[in-house]
């Protein structure tokens, strides 16, 4: 998809589900050796890697099974023909016929067995059972999330809108905690310059950044009803369906479909259209014919002001707000490099047909950093703080060689040149710390390097933080060294129309010509400048006039402003870590979710093991039984928790304590205070279910200490007596 | 303005500048007695109050001066005529002519004096000199804010877009602090259910809420160029201009213009159009004729999804996201009332011509609370916590009687029935605490009650927190008891078209008819229901068909779902405090700004006296002189501040310490640590410029203590030795 390739730093390529790494890589290994570079452009390598490949060991066994089935089927067909011929022959004897029929039956049984073997192989390759359990796990998580209002499909009472979700109370609290920590971890600790720009953006800005022209997906329309589909989705669904269900596919056909799946993201509109036609793909709901694919711009368009002549869009990313302010921010930083700016805010993408719940939505929160650095010195003074971190990295070499992600020490990754430079490495390390402190599982987090042709031509190096969840490996943070592209896009283009000259030539139309000249983007302006310099005049189409006019050299002056520093003229490089907050939160939900048995054997209890940092509420307060004196103590404790700034809820319903624990475990509250006397209470930790006894005066400070992360639960348990009796209260 | 009246709770009526309260009220007092209710609808009273009134004492003296001037001018004219006649008379003698001319000159001098007197009176009434100093003050604040990047006009390098602003680094930090405190003060302390809904909203929701039909301002267009203007702005500018500059106005004319100013907000499109015509008002830039006024909807429109058939808008307020989730949130709260939900987020209004900087913008942050309560019990258990607060309130009675805002004890306001109920009173108290803790000046904060006809017909009582700044009294928070209006608007309308019946009648057009039926709002649906019940059939216009069709009873079933609680059917009342965060922040900037003399006499130093709670950065660290050992100490302190979570900057430039103090005073940093030795340092407080000496080990904890508000500066100063010598370092 053009959209996904367009800005490697800020869009989040969804990786197709794969239940385990190893077989994928093995398949890829064989594939990589099978496809010579002259045959498949390297650009497609990543997609090949992502989809199942045709020449992997499993695929090989699948192929031989297909061949075997085809042979058996051919034998069955031949025998059936023989039986028919026998029966038709005048004077055929019954025993002969019976024997032939028996033989046919036996052959059919064999063919049936071969078909089942193939079906099993296809399912295994598609990891059908793993897919089922992933699906079941996801359903369990999503059910809990929706039932406890972590999120809600938006405008549900009006039948909802695809791709729009509300965060309900606990989801909203988690999001707020994630953003607060992001601000602490990046903006405050690194002294970044945070900005907050509007979502409404005039067209001229997004024209310069390239979004107006290139931020598109290919779409087809049902020619009768007008319903729209993403062209690649239809082709993908068709191929997968065929591969899974059609056992009569020849090995060649299967290989072709797999090749199509692998190439999907690189097809042009024409290629996609040809495939749809070849396969006779029609509209899924109506079976009507489909239009040819054409690009659909994913930005929500609007109009600024009442005149209707100033087009605008809802920003598709927050980064542009930083780039257009570069000069002011540079000045704010004392005209010194390096410095970083950051922005948290909403971004908007009018997806053609959003799928996959919270992972592909039409409005989402981005947190983006633009670190501006001298292109000739990308060292980072704090790199040593992260150099010793060791975590899963998936460099280009390992991907190309079909190997797995491997643990690498970050310092070595930089010194060996695997990661392009220290600043990029520093941010990779900081992102690793950020995600794991939130509660992302280290084993299901990897940093994957972009393959050379995945990156935009101007980029120096890009790494994605990918998190594995039930949908597969999801790109949640992009960390890109984008060179100088973004600033160049906005380097100040100065167009000065001569109103006098234009007035003489165009009279009443002068205003329209002036506006059209001023609205040119850099490319158009530089082309005009070149033409004017070489030919002295140029034809220029003014859309508000609906015609072209001739512009001469005297009518307009065009120049580009350059940045200067110490007489050396250069554009700073940009290193851009870009965080899809909603995706991180969804993966966090999955990584935090588990079930444990309840007292009643059939029932499982749901738990979110959020670290206190992100838990929506840090603590609950439960009077053990419903009496005024326990309620009073609970209120005193609640007040002291408020004073200590610890978010909490108090539950004085008469429900059993076990039920109340279960209820708050399910929204991930890490600590519960149970009031069972008037001078001391118990504090229970969610995951261990351990309890300690603490005096009422101390409760708030103890809870604050563990909730703020100053101490761990095990630090605390040594200091206070364990409370054992109440364990039996658990459900 | 329709927009301003439409939802009294969430829009922010800008009150015309008034330099002091008393004269306004005096004027209003006279006015109120002058206009009988039968003459001016009470609806207009507020507007009369806001604009200068024609029969105030000052206006009266102005009127007599106008009369005097007119008389003098008439005498001058008569004498001039006499002189001309005399000169024309054959045989007139020179001495006679000279005497007449002398007399004319004397009369002209008198007339000139009268004109100057009138001019002075007009200026005094308009508070011209006060207006000048307000303007100068505002310029000083705004210059500082823009220079230090508190905010930046958005997309400046592309010549900007009116009504869109970026928050730069210190502004962004202030905003983030204000929102964090809001969340702490309201959401956490009150256990509110926070939600986070998308900005993109489908039309059906905003149709139900009334915004699609009524969220408009009246606009006129330059008939030749198409440039748009707010009709009331043009009329207002014309009237003000005339009153200030045209000394030849008769008293009657002046009174009429003032009356028009007073009535401005209540004019219909026709009335506005008639006035524009009467006065011959043309387009300000071109003098072209203007179109008739017509309503312009202020929502940014867009289209959701690729088909182009699902219209959507950027939300004009955040409240609707809460209302549509009411049922889920009610369930989340255990099906119990009262409870409150809250949302912080962006809202969008496509203003026709934004004015007044940060106060009227096209995109802004709202923080809204919807407190749902049983309409028969609006008591509040925590009201007692705020009952003793005393602050400026401006009840209806005082406004109608032309008196000033008066200090009232909140408990009495409720017990005397001035404030409708405890819950409303509780929120008024909480808002007061919120604003004053942010640093809003108590003396320039008042709670003004809506006059009966200012409120929507369904509202029980509304109070605005108004903050006085250089633009006048600005509504920054609306606190409205909105009865049950909002929930009723979304009570589930169930429209079930019978596709079979419709298919039989409309065949190929069935789909369009079904969609049109489903798209009806409650009013339309209920009207159809009534017609179908009485007449059995009804004409129904289907816009996608471009014609009306006949709908019969069999074709559609319409019903409204009701909420039930304990068998008593009722819709909860909503009490809605709604905060314009950008407006609060702008007023906070003005209230915090002051200047003090620098060493160089001509120069004034700018200071923002932000409380630590909102200060963008809590602390700066300055090595007194540039040496490695001081730099090292500074770095150690910076590290301990980071560990303590105190935001800070370190400035190791060699600039004089006074200059560095001045630089951070200007962005409102409350504390500065100066490293002048290797074992202890000084801490300086911004406003008192006092310094204390603290050991290096203690610095971070001391700064944290005052920055977090656990202690005040004066608490601290007693505990540490004062440092006097360095005072002389101040600029």
UniProtKB/TrEMBL annotation, chains A, B:
It catalyses: tRNA(Gly) + glycine + ATP = glycyl-tRNA(Gly) + AMP + diphosphate. It is an enzyme of class 6 (ligase). SMART domains: WHEP-TRS (SM00991). The keyword Aminoacyl-tRNA synthetase applies. GO terms for biological process: mitochondrial glycyl-tRNA aminoacylation. One of its GO terms (cellular component) is mitochondrion. InterPro entries: aa-tRNA-synt_IIb, aa-tRNA-synth_II, aa-tRNA-synth_II/BPL/LPL, Anticodon-bd, Anticodon-bd_dom_sf, Gly-tRNA_synthase/POLG2, GlyRS-like_core, tRNA-synt_gly. Residues 139-597 form the Aminoacyl-transfer RNA synthetases class-II family profile domain. One of its GO terms (molecular function) is glycine-tRNA ligase activity. Its EC number is 6.1.1.14. Keywords: Aminoacyl-tRNA synthetase, ATP-binding, Cytoplasm, Ligase, Nucleotide-binding, Protein biosynthesis, Transferase. Residues 68-125 form the WHEP-TRS domain. Homodimer. Belongs to the class-II aminoacyl-tRNA synthetase family. This is glycine--tRNA ligase. It comes from Zingiber officinale. The lineage of its organism: Eukaryota, Viridiplantae, Streptophyta, Embryophyta, Tracheophyta.
């Amino acid at each position: 998809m053009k959209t996904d390739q367009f800005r490697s730093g800020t869009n989040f390529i969804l990786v197709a589900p794969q239940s385990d790494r190893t077989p994928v890589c093995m398949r890829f290994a064989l594939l990589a050796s099978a496809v010579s570079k002259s045959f498949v452009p390297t650009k497609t390598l990543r997609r090949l890697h992502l989809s199942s490949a045709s020449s992997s060991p499993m695929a090989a066994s699948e192929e031989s099974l297909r061949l075997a089935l085809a042979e058996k089927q051919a034998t069955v067909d031949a025998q059936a023909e023989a039986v028919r011929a026998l029966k038709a022959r005048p004077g055929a004897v019954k025993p002969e016929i019976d024997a032939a029929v028996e033989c046919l039956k036996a052959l059919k049984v064999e063919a049936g067995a071969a078909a089942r073997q193939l079906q099993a192989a296809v399912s295994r390759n598609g990891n059908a059972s793993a897919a089922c359990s992933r699906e079941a796990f996801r359903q369990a998580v999503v059910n809990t999330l929706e039932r406890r209002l972590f999120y809600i499909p938006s405008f549900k009472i009006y039948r909802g809108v695809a791709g729009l979700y509300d965060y309900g109370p606990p989801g909203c609290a988690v999001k707020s905690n994630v953003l607060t920590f992001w601000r602490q971890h990046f903006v405050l600790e690194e002294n970044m310059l945070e900005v907050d720009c509007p979502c409404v953006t005039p067209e001229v800005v997004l024209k310069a950044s390239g979004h107006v022209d290139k931020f598109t997906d290919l779409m087809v329309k049902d020619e009768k009803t007008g319903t729209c589909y993403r062209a690649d989705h239809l082709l993908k669904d068709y191929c997968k369906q065929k591969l899974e269900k059609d056992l009569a596919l020849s090995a060649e056909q299967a290989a072709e479909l797999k090749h199509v799946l692998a190439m999907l993201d690189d097809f042009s509109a024409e290629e996609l259209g040809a495939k749809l036609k070849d396969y006779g793909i029609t509209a899924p709901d109506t079976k009507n014919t489909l239009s040819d694919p054409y690009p659909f711009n994913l930005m929500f368009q609007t109009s600024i002001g009442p005149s209707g002549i100033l087009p605008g869009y809802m920003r598709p990313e927050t980064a542009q707000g930083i780039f257009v302010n570069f000069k002011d921010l540079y000045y704010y930083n004392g005209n010194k490099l390096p410095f970083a700016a950051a922005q948290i805010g909403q971004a908007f993408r009018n997806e053609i047909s959003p799928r996959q719940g919270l992972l592909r939505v039409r409005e989402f929160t981005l947190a983006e950093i633009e670190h501006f650095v001298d292109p000739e010195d990308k060292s980072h003074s704090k790199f040593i703080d992260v150099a010793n971190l060791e975590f899963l990295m998936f460099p280009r070499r390992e991907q190309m060689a079909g190997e797995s992600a491997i643990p690498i020490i970050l310092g070595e990754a930089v010194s060996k040149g695997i990661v392009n430079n220290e600043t990029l490495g520093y941010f990779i390390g900081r992102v690793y710390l950020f995600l794991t402190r939130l509660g992302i599982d280290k084993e299901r987090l990897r940093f994957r390097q972009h393959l050379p042709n995945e990156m935009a031509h101007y980029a120096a190096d890009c790494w994605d933080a990918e998190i594995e969840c039930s949908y597969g490996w999801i790109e949640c943070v992009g960390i890109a060294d984008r060179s100088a592209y973004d600033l160049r896009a906005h380097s100040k283009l100065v167009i000065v129309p001569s109103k006098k000259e234009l007035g003489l030539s165009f009279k009443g139309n002068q205003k329209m010509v002036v506006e059209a000249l001023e609205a040119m983007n850099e490319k158009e302006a530089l082309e005009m400048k070149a033409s004017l310099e070489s030919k002295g005049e140029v034809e220029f189409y003014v859309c508000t006039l609906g015609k072209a006019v001739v512009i001469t050299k005297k009518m307009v002056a065009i120049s580009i402003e350059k940045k200067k520093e110490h007489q050396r003229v250069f554009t700073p490089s940009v290193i851009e870590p870009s965080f899809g907050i909603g995706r991180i939160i969804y993966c966090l939900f999955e990584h935090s979710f588990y079930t444990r048995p309840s007292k009643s054997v059939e029932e499982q209890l749901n738990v979110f093991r959020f670290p206190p940092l992100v838990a929506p509420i840090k603590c609950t307060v439960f009077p053990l039984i419903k009496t005024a004196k326990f309620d009073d103590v609970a209120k005193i404790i609640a007040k002291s928790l408020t004073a200590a700034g610890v978010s909490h809820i108090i539950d004085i319903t008469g429900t059993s304590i076990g039920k109340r624990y279960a209820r708050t475990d399910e929204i991930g509250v890490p600590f519960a205070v149970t009031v069972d006397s008037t001078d001391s209470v118990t504090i229970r930790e969610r995951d261990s279910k351990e309890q300690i006894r603490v005096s009422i005066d101390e409760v708030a400070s103890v809870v604050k200490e563990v909730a703020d992360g100053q101490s761990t639960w095990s630090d605390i348990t040594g200091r206070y007596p364990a409370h054992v009796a109440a364990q039996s209260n658990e459900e």
